[in-house]
Every structure is written in structure tokens, then in C-alpha cells.
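re: ur question from yesterday

yeah so i grabbed the chain u mentioned. its 108 aa long if i counted rite. heres the sequnce exactly as i have it in my notes:
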Amino acid sequence: MRLSSQAFQNQSDPDGTEAMSVFVEERLNDLGADHLAVVEGFPGYGLASFSARVPRDHSLPVVWAPTDAGLRGQAHANVLGKKTRSIQKALATASSMRVWPHSADDSA
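ran it thru and got these C-alpha cells back, copy pasting raw so excuse formatting
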């Protein structure tokens, strides 16, 4: 199965900023958590991994954006800026799946 570039679509914050929510694995590890903490409590969600270099190579900054969502929130960041079709494709190509999405009634 191949990761779709649609997984990297733009999301607009209430202030109009285009941001894609990401989590920094090194920070999760520093907090004693792993990548599974990101999807815990979100059945049907998957998790892809890519280096921060990829968006930065396309002039998209990666900025810390901690939330109050426990350990997961302390490792939260945003990739800012418009993700054009070519950037979405570059992110998909550079990504590896860590957790494939499945429905709550799928057997593990």
C-alpha cells in the first residue's frame, strides 16, 4: 500500500495560517513516550513519519506548537505554509508509514 499525497493537505488555523500538525519523535522519546502515543485514542487514524528536512527544503518552517494534550501535546509542532501538490507529493514520497489506519472493528 502506498501513502497518498492527500494525507498532506492544507489545514487552516482560525487566524488563516496554513498549518499541518506534526509531532517530533525525538521529543516524544525524551518524554518517555513513543510514536504510538500520537494515535492513542484515535481509532482509524494512521501515522506517517518524515524528516523535518523535507518541508524545510521546500521553504516551509517547522515550528513548536505545544498543546495541552498530555505527552503528545508537548511534542506537537506545525509545518507552516501552503502545501502545493508538488510539496504534498514530496512529503508522501519521503514518508514511511509507522501505523496504518484501520477501523475500530478490524482485527489487529
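noticed a couple things. The chain has one domain: 5-99. also Residues 85-94 form the longest helix (10 residues).
anyway ttyl
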